[in-house]
């Protein structure tokens, strides 16, 4: 659902840019509370994983494909504020290096794909956890539903932005019907990927999953008439997987997905591209400012073999994203440490 340059007019793009900047500022402050020395490295990995999986377009209807948006996945794994930052880092890397998503439309894309999906999915996720049994399975179920609803929500948000600042004269009713219809189908794929990924991480390190924190209440025993916390049970072997092992496994998986599996992704246009072509939204689309980038369109310039070119571009993208994301979250964690140090030192 990467919006190209020219779909939305300049004033509306500027307003969404301001909205996105404000949301990022709020998210940077909020991420300080979500990130610590255990979860900060995971956040950089989540950004890289989202980048990799977004390269895996899957067919959803005749001549149409979809891909992960990632807002729900990021929010549940590392928290809503950090999730907004994760998806924003991915969008920035894609726009600057791979000419995917317009640079003048960066505010539109961050608002739609990072902010809307994260806010909607996390609100749904928390609402479901409030009524479901306090079990790990409930986290998976809530993840599925939250991710499923986040994608059509993003389609609705795009339709509203297009209604305000669209550059072509197309019936908003037709745009809304087409966008929501195809993105409900894409949402199913988003839900499956999100639920499987969240359940996999919970299986090995539930303590690192933001959405699963506080899921299990501490067992209490009555001793001499008083309630006391029972000793914590010994964690199973799977749950004692080290953070380093989890990080390396996640990075290798991302590299394999982007560097190899992506070659077999659907070549059909994604939901927005298909609707834009069919309804005439793309009549005033502009050439991307980074169209001459050596990595434009997820290929390496001067590498003639398509499989090798796409694979190298994917590997480079994962590497750049994990470095950029890790740098951002390391800086946020450092800022948190600086904020709490006076308390720790008694000053």
TrEMBL record:
Q: Which residues cross the membrane?
A: 7-28, 40-60, 72-93, 113-132, 144-164, 176-204, 246-265, 311-332
As given in the record, the signal peptide range reads: none
List the GO cellular component terms. Answer: plasma membrane
Q: How does it sit in the membrane?
A: Multi-pass membrane protein
Tell me the GO BP annotations in alphabetical order.
transition metal ion transport
InterPro entries per UniProt:
CbiM/NikMN, PDGLE_dom
Annotated compartments: Cell membrane
Name the predominant localization.
Answer: membrane
Kindly indicate whether the keyword Nucleus belongs to this entry: no
Q: Where is the PDGLE domain?
A: 244-334
The protein's UniProt keywords, in alphabetical order, are: Cell membrane, Membrane, Transmembrane, Transmembrane helix, Transport
The protein's name is Cobalt ABC transporter permease
Its ancestry begins with: Bacteria, Bacillati, Actinomycetota, Actinomycetes, Kitasatosporales
């Amino acid at each position: 659902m990467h919006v190209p340059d020219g779909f939305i007019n300049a004033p509306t793009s500027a307003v969404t840019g301001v909205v996105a900047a404000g949301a990022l500022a709020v998210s940077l402050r909020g991420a300080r509370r979500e990130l610590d020395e255990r979860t900060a490295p995971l956040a950089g990995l989540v950004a890289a994983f989202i980048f990799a999986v977004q390269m895996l377009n899957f067919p959803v209807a005749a001549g149409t494909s979809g891909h992960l948006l990632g807002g729900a996945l990021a929010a549940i794994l590392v928290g809503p504020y950090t999730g907004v930052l994760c998806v924003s880092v991915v969008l920035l890397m894609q726009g600057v290096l791979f000419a995917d998503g317009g640079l003048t439309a960066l505010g539109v894309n961050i608002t739609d794909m990072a902010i809307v999906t994260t806010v909607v999915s996390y609100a749904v996720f928390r609402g479901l956890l409030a009524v479901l049994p306090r079990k790990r399975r409930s986290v998976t179920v809530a993840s599925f539903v939250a991710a499923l609803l986040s994608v059509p929500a993003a389609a609705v948000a795009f339709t509203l932005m297009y209604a305000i600042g669209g550059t072509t004269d197309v019936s908003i009713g037709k745009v809304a019907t087409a966008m929501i219809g195809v993105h409900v189908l894409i949402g199913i794929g988003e839900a499956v990927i999100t639920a499987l990924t969240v359940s996999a991480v919970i299986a090995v390190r539930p303590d690192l999953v933001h959405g699963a924190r506080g899921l299990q209440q501490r067992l209490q025993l009555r001793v001499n008439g008083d309630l006391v916390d029972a000793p914590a049970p010994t964690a199973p072997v799977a749950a004692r997987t080290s953070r380093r092992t989890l990080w390396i496994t996640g990075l290798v998986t991302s590299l394999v997905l982007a560097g190899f599996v992506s070659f077999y992704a659907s070549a059909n246009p994604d939901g927005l591209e298909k609707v834009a072509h069919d309804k005439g939204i793309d009549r005033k689309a502009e050439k991307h400012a980074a169209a001459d980038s050596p990595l434009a369109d997820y290929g390496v310039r001067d590498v003639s073999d398509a499989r090798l070119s796409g694979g190298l571009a994917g590997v480079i993208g994962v590497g750049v994203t994990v470095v950029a994301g890790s740098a951002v979250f390391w800086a946020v964690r450092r800022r948190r440490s600086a904020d709490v140090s006076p308390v720790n030192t008694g000053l």
